[in-house]
Fold this protein.
Amino acid sequence: MKKVFGFGENVAGYNIPVLNEREIRAAAGILFLFVFIGIILAGVKGDFLMIKYAITIFLTDISIRVFINPRFSPSLILGRLIVRNQVPEYVGAQQKKFAWIIGVILSFIIFIHLVALNSFSPITGLGCLFCLIFLFFESAFGICIGCKIYSLVYKENAQYCPGEVCDVKARQEIQKTSKAQLVILFCFVAYIFLVVFAFNESFNIKPYDLFGIESTSHSE
C-alpha cells in the first residue's frame, strides 16, 4: 500500500522526501501549453472544446499527484522521460504538495463552472489566468509561486528549493545586475513602446500572398 500511496521520494543525503524539480518543470511546460492553446481558442474563436479538455486533464493529473502519488501522474511521467538524461535537481516534497493543492482547488472551481455547469464568467477567466501564471513561472523560471505562499502561511522557510533560493546567501558575481544592464533593459522597454506607437497602423495591414498560393487554392 505504501508503494502506491505516498508523496515524495527518499533520497540519500536529504532528510525529508523530495521530488525531481526538472521533471516538474517539464510537466508544467506541457500543461501550460495545453491550457494556453485552449484559452486562446476560447478567447479568439469562442471555441471552448479545447479548454474543457485541458481543464479536465489538468484536474485529473494534479489530483493524482496530491491524492495518490506524484510518481503516477501522467504529465510527470512524460516529464521524466523528456529529462531522463539530465542530472536530477531535488526539491522538498512538502511545499510542492501545498502548491499542488492550490492547483487542485483552482482547477476544480473552473471544472465545476466550465465543464459541469457549461458556463463561463470572470471566475473561470481568473482561475485559468492564475493557473497559467503558476505553470508559466514554474516552467520558465523554476519559481514555484505556491511554495512562496507555503512559506507565508506556515511562517517557515521551505527546504530544498529549486536553485537553493531558500538559502540566504550572497549572490555570485555572474548573478549580479549592473547599472548598465538595468539601463539597457529600461531602454529596450522604451523601444518596444516606441515601436508600437510608430508602427502599429502599418503592422495592422494584412500581409499579401507573395507567391499567390492562397489565391490559387481558392480558385481550385
Remarks:
- The two ends are 63 Å apart (CA to CA).
- The mean pLDDT is 86.
- The first strand starts at residue 18 and ends at 20.
- DSSP finds eight helices and two strands in the chain.
